[in-house]
Specification:
By secondary structure, this protein is α/β, with parallel strands linked by helices. The protein contains 14 helices and nine strands. It folds into two domains: 236 residues, Aldolase class I (TIM Barrel, Alpha-Beta Barrel), CATH 3.20.20.70; 79 residues, Bacteriocin As-48, Chain A.
Length: 337
């Protein structure tokens, strides 16, 4: 089994990738998308989204990261992929699944699923632009408004030369509403000759088990489920089947998670603008409270706080930060992990 950590714009960025890969169970990550328009981006633009490029393409825990590009111009995507490849990611991933209106309005993300021929041209151009040893993968949804062309799109991507295909088992119109149609991933898996990874609505070990059965995929990509339960990948790996005794308790205890929350806060304060810091912590606590009563209490305590200094003092009192941590101005923070 291979377990991938999904990219999620505005949520699962390099800071949270760092924390979740420290927990364990994840084989590989994908960065959130780097938007490509009509410009050859400088290296600093790639580093901003994926600072792991300065660490051999690995998270601090040693988990490989692929860099994801989003765009619709084959030539421009190829040029940027070539520059990015020189920086040493563990592969290039192409985004054909983003459902955001602003992205789709400009012909990117899931909007490309209405043009299978363009999918082939994009992948082919990127494949030719990067070294032969570097994987080029893609992530797609089942379609834009419906899933009638799901198999056709997957075959177009395979024809272009992708080495792996992640399928989010919903259309753009479905957004993130349950259910995920895992059985349609199986249709795709049977129609292409490249490895397929199933993604969507994997919140629990039981979800993972049912997804693997319905999709026929050994490999899974998990996203929000890992944000809610950081030990989910470990729990999936340890699953002994439907007849096993499964506890409702998270695989990682709150006590073990607290130091990571403290490290998360330190990194957020070092790397993000002051106005973003409180919101990022509360965002993660808002997800964690679905698994941990202690996170619920912390979220309720901090939800009206916007001052990072007050939040840091509260975390010290709670023992989440073990010692006084000097504040780090964003301008003084290192550019790379």
């Amino acid at each position: 089994m291979t377990i991938l950590l999904a990219p999620m714009e505005g949520l699962l960025d390099f800071v949270l990738r760092d924390m979740l890969t420290r927990v364990g169970g994840v084989d590989r990550c994908v960065s959130e998308f780097i938007r490509i328009t009509h410009t050859l981006l400088p290296e600093k633009a790639f580093l901003r989204v994926m600072p792991e490029l300065a660490n051999g393409g690995l998270t601090p825990a040693g988990v490989p990261v692929r860099a994801q590009l989003l765009g619709s111009d084959p030539v421009c995507l190829a040029e940027n992929a070539a520059r990015l490849a020189e920086m040493g990611p563990h592969g290039i991933d192409l985004n054909f699944g983003c459902p955001a209106k602003v992205v789709n309005r400009h012909g990117g993300g899931a909007a490309l699923l209405d043009d299978p021929e363009l999918l082939t041209r994009i992948v082919s151009a990127v494949r030719k632009a990067v070294p032969a040893h570097m994987p080029v993968s893609a992530k797609m949804r089942l379609g834009f408004l419906d899933d009638s062309r799901a198999v056709e799109c997957a075959q177009a991507l395979a024809l272009g030369g992708v080495s792996e295909l992640v399928v989010h088992a919903r259309t753009k119109a479905d957004a993130y509403r349950p259910p995920a149609y895992w059985e349609r991933v199986n249709d795709i898996r049977l129609a292409v000759n490249v490895p397929v990874v199933a993604n969507g609505e994997i919140w629990t070990v039981d979800d993972a088990r049912r997804c693997r059965q319905a999709s026929g995929c050994d490999s899974l990509m998990v996203g929000r489920g890992m944000v809610v339960d950081p030990g989910l990948a470990l729990a999936i790996r340890e699953d002994r089947g439907a007849d096993a005794s499964n506890t409702a308790e998270p695989r990682v205890s709150w006590q073990d998670l607290q130091p990571l929350i403290g490290q998360f806060w330190i990194l957020v304060c070092a790397r993000l603008e002051r106005k973003q810091q409180a919101g990022r912590l509360k965002q993660w606590l808002n997800f964690l409270r679905h698994s941990y009563p202690e996170a619920e209490a912390a979220y309720l305590e901090l939800r009206v706080s916007h001052d990072p200094q007050i939040i840091g003092q509260w975390m010290l009192r709670q023992g989440i930060l073990p010692t006084q941590v000097p504040s780090v101005a964003r301008s003084e923070a290192p550019d790379m992990l």
